[in-house]
Amino acid sequence: MKIAVFIDADGRAASLYQPGTVRVYETAADGWRQVMDIPFALHQQMGLSEIRTRTLAMLTSLDGCRHFVATAIHGALLSYFDGMGINMWRLTGEPAGFLSRIRQFVEENAQREQAQAPQDFIRPGRGAGEYCLNLVDALKSDGALTSKQVLLPFLRAGTFKKIDITCDHVPKWFKRELPALKLALTVAQQPDGLCRALVLNIAGNA
C-alpha cells in the first residue's frame, strides 16, 4: 500500500496552499519506507489553469498511490483529486502518527464492503461466465448500500466474461476503475428511461 503525504520543512503534514513536498510512503516488512519525494507549491495568486496543470502533473506521478494526506484540501483541488481516483485525508502531525491508522481503516472498510455486498442480486446469465444485475433493485433493498459495495468486489474478482447491469445511471467510478481492471463498457438507453450497462472482461480471466 502507498500513501502520499504533503509535508512542510519540518516533516509534518501541511496545507496544499504552501510550499512543501509530496512524500510517498510504502508498506515494508519493518513498517513504512519513503519511496518518492515530489516538490510541490501552489499560491492563491495562481490562475485556475496553472493550478490544474501543476496538480494533475503531480497526481499523475504518484504511480499507483491512491491515498493523499494534507491538513487542507479544498476548492477546485477536490475535483482534481477525485477525478484521478485519489482518496483524500485531512490529518495533522508527522506521518509516523497516522500512516498505519490509515492502512488499518482502509483494510477494515474493504472487509465490510465485501461482507455487505448483496451477491444474491448478481445472477447467472444465459451462457457460461455471463451474469446480470438489476442495480436499481439492489440499491433499493438497502438505503445504506452503494453501487461500489454491490459491484466492485465482483468486478475485481474478474471471474466472468460479461455482466449485464440495469441502472438508472452509469456509476461515475466506472470511468476510473474499469480501465484499471481491464474491463470494457458499453451503454444503451432503454425505453423505460433506465440504462443497460454491459461490462466485458477483456482480460479473459473467466
Cα end-to-end separation: 27 Å
Determine the mean pLDDT: 87
| Number of strand elements | 10
Largest sheet: 5 strands, mixed
Radius of gyration: 20 Å
Secondary structure class reads alpha/beta
Order of SSEs: EEEHEHEHEEHHEHEE
Strand order of the largest sheet: 3-2-1-4-5
β-sheet strand percentage: 25-35%
Highlighted features:
alpha/beta; 5-stranded mixed sheet; 6 helices; elongated
Commentary on this structure:
The protein is of the alpha/beta class. It has six helices and ten strands. The strands form two sheets. It has a five-stranded mixed β-sheet, with helices on one face. The chain has a five-stranded mixed β-sheet with strand order 6-7-8-10-9. Helix 1 (48-60) packs parallel to helix 2 (76-83). The longest helix has 18 residues, at 99-116. The radius of gyration is 20 Å and the shape is elongated. The two termini are 27 Å apart.
Quick description:
The protein has 206 residues and is an alpha/beta fold. 31% of the residues lie in helices and 30% in strands.
